[in-house]
Amino acid sequence: MKAKNSLGTQKLAAVIALVVLFVFFSIFGEGFLQYSTVISIFDSLYYIGFMAIGVTFVIITGGIDLSIGTVCICCALIGGTLFQKGVPMALCLIIILVIGALFGLANGLMVSVMGLPAFIATLGTMMITRGLGSIVTNTASVTFPTGDAEGAWYKSIFKLQSQNLPDSMLAGIPTGFILLIVLAVVMAVILNKTRSGRYILALGSNKEATRLSGVNVVKWETLAFVISGLFAALAGISYAAIYPTLMPGTGNGFELDAIAGVVIGGTSLSGGVGSISGTLIGVFIMAVLKTGLPFVGLQPHYQLFITGFVLIFAVFMDVLNRRKRG
Amino acid sequence: MGEVILKMKGIDKSFPGVHALKNVELELRRGEVHALMGENGAGKSTLMKVLTGIYSKDAGSIIYEGKEVEFTSPRESQDAGISIVHQELNMMNHLTVAQNIFIGRERMKGKLINDREMEREAAKLFERLKISIDPGETMGRMTVGKQQMCEIAKAISKDAKVIVFDEPTAALTDAEISDLFEIIRDLRSKNIGIIYISHRMDEIKRITDRVTVMRDGEYVGTLVTAESTKDDIINMMVGRVVYEDPKEKSSVPPNAPVVLKVEHLNAGKMVRDVSFELHKGEILGFSGLMGAGRTETARALFGADKKESGDIYINGRKVEIKSPQDAVKYGIGYLSEDRKRYGCIVGKSVAENTTMACLEKFMSGIFINKKKERETAQKYVDELKTKTPSVDQMVRNLSGGNQQKVVIAKWLARDCDILIFDEPTRGIDVGAKSEIYALMNELVKAGKSIIMISSELTEVLRMSDRIVVMCEGRKTGEIPIEKATQESIMHAATLRE
Asked: Which end of chain B has fewer CB atoms at under 10 Å, N or C?
């Protein structure tokens, strides 16, 4: 039970931090506590949130996936280009997800079969996907359909906007939030209640002992990367839904935000321990900071500045905890 | 032999769950080679770690050069003139020989490191030791034997007055051993006190002046080598009063079927053309010295390491075992010598470890049936008398003996018929040992078959129905228990090519 407790303390600290931040901004941030603010918090966290859920699995194996940020944009660019060429939106979305999963598969095979360090393998994929996005689009930006244009329906997966909504909800209904929560629950169940989750946790804790128990560690380690790639692609779709114009060559740095969220949520970079709920809390902390700071007169770049401290503090708590256990 | 330079008295040291040293003494004179002997786990290395300040002692005193000392780090003991040549080499493979020898005390020229000066000094050292090693060579490119010589050179370069050799010949060829002994004799003539840890009886007779024997963390006695026979020393090491008498005859019926047959197994240098059979209900002991290739054989058989050639038959049927997954599928379970690294997942619970090899039995649809998982884990906790507050306890918090039981439970839950126990009682208390022994006997009675790798001769003689002896990767003997003695096993275990 101790593993759960130690994860629990850090998660608890994260929840408290989140509540404190929210209360702080509600009191001191004029106009913070209103519907449109909540919506903009949500808007800003979808893509990081999906990436973070996916990469949690990789981090639990003791690995890392640096490619999610660029995979996210690269997949969206490819999908958007196909749409401009007349491919129906539904098919585009499916292709985006498949490509993301394939990049994840490639990462997984490089790490588990070829034996490359995850850092290097995914660093390579990060560069490849960043380059590939520019190649596919010929370095031009890609704009996804908006408003009432054909194919713009996909946006309502993440935000339902309509003239028919009451004034108070004109900012839209955050359907993406529902999707995020549903998927988080599904992935949490997979992590904690199914064999794949159990094996991913076990191999992150002690890969050799897991292998010697007759478990196919290659398969399950690869699966973690596939999940990561798939969620990066989903993040790409959500990104395009909120920010319809995509530039090639972007996406760098998203992965670090996502990883920071995961780590703040109590998942250990050394593997074996982690939770999806923790990851969500971590991502929320970052999103609240990002949206809330302008309300107290600080520019958004203070978000980075403060998130850095939050990250270091959160992990230091974890280190302290570990030291106490010896 | 000169005056006493080092005297350890009444040394006591406990670790959680293990009383490692009990009132141990050791006396070393200048210009003496003093053997420290004992079976694996007798406490020799622990004693040396107490001496060099890696462990702190619970009680007792260390008198060095007439003064009571208490080193708190290896650095302190080194500065005082006590050096240790470790069994595992602690070398930085990418640095040169000279850089390795002077690590931490580099010769400087102003603010910069003076490599040339260090190489000159290293060359002088090698000359003194009469060995030819190029100080500018990269450490990783030399043979293990030469690396060992570098360790020795490093120890001497620190003006050591006492040098501890921890099984220095384990990885050396005969020629290298002769060179090493030359060096040791030379050091002795220079009035340095030498503590020599080894299992090899012939070496003890060749090189040492006195022998101190330890057993189960206790001091047994000290002999003058020239006045004692091999048997005297062996008797002191083994101690006839051990837990139970050796098994007198095999308990396997003569017509018991062969469950596992291994033919001409080859895997790297450590497994060369190994063949053997395992019968139903048998405990097949694997004996041999450290580095004889027993673990490597087991790992190759289990599919944990790649094998080059060889056939494996299970119940008469030829099988392909390419990975542990295959081995488990055919009902083989492997209990590693290094439980914490390879045996169990210490960061997970007793229940999770128990079901690790057969999780598919605990599924309700796509979900793990945690209730059933906990019930089964609890069943084995009761059956094996595992001491744990609950099945949710992390394995990390259990003692060595109980961790071993969790690993056994894992393979029992999987219903494995062939179990490979690699050093089943290493690091386990005497009391827990007998429990593990009893358990193994129950398992074979229930029709399981066991391969038991053990470095403890008493354990091999007590448990096995038949004994396979290995030396340097080859099978050098197969002895039915009726004919097995410590001497016959030791003889086979030292049959070098």
From this structure: C
pLDDT of residue A305: 86
A326 within domain boundaries: no
Residue B6's pLDDT band, with cuts at 50, 70 and 90, is very high
* DSSP notation for B86-151: -SS----TTSBHHHHHTTTS--EETTEE-HHHHHHHHHHHHHHHT----TTSBGGGS-HHHHHHHH
Question: What is the tens place of the pLDDT at every residue in B300-343?
Answer: 999 999 999 999 999 999 999 999 999 999 999 999 988 888 89
CA distance B178 to B168: 12
The CATH code of domain B4-238 reads 3.40.50.300
Q: Is B410 close to A213, i.e. CB distance below 8 A?
A: yes
Q: Is the pLDDT of residue B147 over 60?
A: yes
How many domains does the structure of chain A reveal?
Answer: 1
Q: Is B347 within 8 Å of A193 when comparing Cβ atoms?
A: no
> Which residue in A has a C-alpha nearest to residue B332's C-alpha?
A214
Provide the terminal-to-terminal Cα distance of chain A, rounded to the nearest Å: 16
Continuous segment of H or E residues that includes residue B371: helix B370-384
Host domain of residue A107: 2-23+31-321
Q: CA A121 to CA A130: how far, in whole Å? A: 14
Q: What are phi and psi of A96, to 5 degrees?
A: -55, -45
Q: Map residue A89 onto helix, strand or coil.
A: helix
Look-up: residue for tokens 């390579």? A124
For the stretch B334-366, pLDDT in tens is: 999 888 888 999 999 999 999 999 999 999 999
CATH code, domain with A212 = 1.10.3470
The two structure tokens encoding residue A263: 């780590």
B170–A contact, CB cutoff 8 A:
no
A278 CB contacts (<8 Å, ≥6 apart)? Answer: A7, A10, A11, A14, A262, A264, A265, A266, A267
Question: Which chain B residues have a beta carbon less than 8 Å from that of A206?
Answer: 341, 344-347
Q: Is A209 within 8 Å of chain B by CB? A: yes
Alpha helices in A217-300 (DSSP H): 217-242, 254-264, 276-292
Q: Is A215 on the interface with B (CB under 8 A)?
A: yes
Residue B216 to residues B15, B48, B128, B454, Cα–Cα distance (Å): 14, 15, 39, 16
One fold for B4-238 and B258-493: yes
Question: Could you state, in order of their start, the residue ranges of all structural domains in chain B?
Answer: 4-238, 258-493
Which residue of chain B has the CA closest to A200? B356
